[in-house]
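Regression test case RT-17, inverse folding.

Input:
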């Protein structure tokens, strides 16, 4: 039974150090009421599937009241579930039902900004220049003879050429590092800090086990709002020192409830990255260098080594992730000539070899699940879903529009999941057309079809997660690199566990006297490990 399955490695209090956490993008997960949009009812109905998959926790992208200009990351009210998804009462039932199946819940908090429909921002617009209400945001007079120019030249997080300022009717401008509908909060204001601590308590009281922090290095701003100068230290809006006081106060709240934090921290400086993971700040942070790393043995090894090294001084576990709701799906990315990821290089019509990408994605799944620390699995990765190039007239992502139509946006990795091959809309929902169009071949990836196929991606994930939960050597702990030919990654964990991944052109030999636990694909003649294949061994 799912409720009695073994716990992840480690004690109950440090479950997060070795957990496998499944990312749920509610809008695209499962449609319970048939209106074309995923909802909490759909998630609740699929909880047994998630328990059987073998994950330890569920991370939900924002499910709060939102105009959905940016997929829910424009939050209008943190204490209200968006009606498209359900109600707070349903969220409470979901949290409790998931916990009964051994699944913890992690919610998403977006501290950098709110929706322009948030009551605070609407009050600020109405109150006018110089009002206390505007002090909660970054309102400024413009430059130029008539205030017609933005207050500074900061680049947008959605498109460097886009403006980060919007002028309102009374002539003032407000800052938004993302879309104009996402005004940035002023984190120097005590009311902003207090409100977010209250929101944390609101959801922790309802039983969530943790909080994911969106754009965790962005909220604090230089109060002078100077023009942007590349290389300026300190940066005017990224990784400012005053942020650490915020997260220390948040950590005190989390510790009251035994909850954990995971931060989205994009920083090239490993020493500054590690500061967010000090014992009195965040518990973990997303490993974004591994996520964007090309399918190249030397670069993957460097990413692993650097990740472990930057976490070691603060005693924090590493996290590993191949894809999320912002990133081109693994099967597609690994099937392209450029197997890395960079927002700046996304383009329509990029050629992809899906067979090659699938083979590599299967190997990468075993690689990531064998590394020390915790792992995040984005919904649909366990089905081997490819990226879908959404027709231009159906794209909803603001990244596409802010780029002037050059960037295809992130909708391609957010296409609704296929559950039943022979059901309408591949089983996502019963009546209305899904909010994003499904590809013509989506039924071939359906969960029910894969569940009956022992060679499917779903079968691979289920077996890998079963072994990870029940076998020794997985999760947090030491890693030792083993001698291997060029292009081959080979490392040992505790209790004789060995992972070998072949990225070289030719098949390679496996260690002698080793028993095979799991392979991402068939072995070659003579028991050799083929190219783009991974194995778990016990020696």
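Golden output:
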């Amino acid at each position: 039974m799912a409720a009695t399955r073994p716990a992840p490695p480690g004690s109950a209090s440090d479950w997060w150090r070795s957990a496998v956490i499944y990312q749920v993008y509610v809008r695209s997960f499962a449609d319970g009421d048939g209106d074309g949009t995923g909802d909490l009812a759909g998630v609740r109905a699929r909880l047994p599937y998630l328990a059987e998959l073998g994950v330890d926790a569920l991370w939900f992208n924002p499910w709060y009241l939102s105009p959905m200009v940016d997929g829910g990351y424009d939050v209008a009210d943190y204490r209200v579930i968006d009606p498209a998804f359900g109600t707070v009462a349903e969220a409470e039932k979901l949290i409790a039902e998931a916990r009964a199946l051994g699944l913890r819940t992690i919610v998403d908090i977006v501290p950098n900004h709110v929706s322009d429909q948030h009551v605070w921002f609407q009050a600020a617009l109405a109150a006018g220049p110089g009002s206390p209400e505007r002090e909660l945001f970054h309102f400024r007079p413009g430059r130029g003879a008539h205030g017609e120019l933005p207050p500074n030249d900061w680049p947008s997080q959605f498109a460097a050429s886009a403006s980060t300022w919007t002028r309102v009717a009374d002539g003032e401008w407000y800052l938004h590092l993302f879309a104009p509908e996402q005004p940035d909060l002023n984190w120097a204001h005590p009311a902003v800090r207090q409100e977010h601590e209250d929101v944390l308590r609101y959801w922790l009281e309802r039983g969530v086990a943790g909080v994911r922090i969106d754009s965790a290095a962005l909220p604090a701003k230089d109060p002078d709002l100077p023009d942007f100068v590349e290389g300026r230290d300190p940066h005017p809006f990224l990784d400012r020192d005053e942020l650490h006081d915020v997260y220390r106060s948040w950590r005190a709240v989390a510790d009251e409830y035994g909850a954990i934090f995971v931060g989205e921290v994009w920083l090239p400086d490993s020493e500054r990255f590690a500061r967010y993971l000090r014992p009195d700040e965040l518990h973990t942070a997303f490993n974004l260098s591994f996520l964007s790393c090309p399918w190249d043995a030397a670069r993957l090894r460097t990413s692993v080594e650097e990740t472990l090294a930057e976490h070691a001084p603060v005693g924090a576990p590493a996290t590993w992730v191949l894809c999320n709701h912002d990133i081109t799906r693994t099967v597609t990315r690994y099937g392209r000539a450029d197997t890395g990821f960079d927002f700046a290089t996304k383009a329509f019509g990029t050629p992809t070899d899906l067979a090659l990408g699938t083979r590599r994605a299967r190997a990468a799944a075993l690689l990531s699940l064998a590394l020390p620390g915790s792992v995040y699995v984005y919904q649909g990765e366990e089905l081997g879903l490819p990226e879908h190039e959404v027709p231009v007239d159906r794209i909803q992502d603001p990244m596409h529009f802010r780029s002037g139509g050059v960037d295809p946006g992130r909708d391609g990795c957010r296409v609704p999941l296929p559950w039943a091959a022979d059901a309408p809309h591949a089983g996502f929902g019963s009546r209305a057309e899904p909010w994003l169009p499904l590809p013509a071949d989506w039924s071939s990836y359906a969960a029910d079809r894969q569940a009956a196929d022992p060679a499917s991606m779903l079968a691979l994930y289920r077996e890998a997660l079963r072994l990870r939960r029940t076998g020794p050597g997985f999760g947090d702990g030491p890693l030792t690199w083993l001698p291997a030919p060029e292009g081959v990654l080979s490392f040992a964990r505790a209790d004789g566990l060995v992972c070998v991944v072949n990225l070289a052109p030719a098949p390679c030999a496996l260690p002698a006297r080793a028993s095979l636990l799991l392979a991402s694909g068939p072995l070659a003649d003579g028991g050799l490990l083929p190219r783009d294949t991974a194995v778990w061994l016990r020696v």
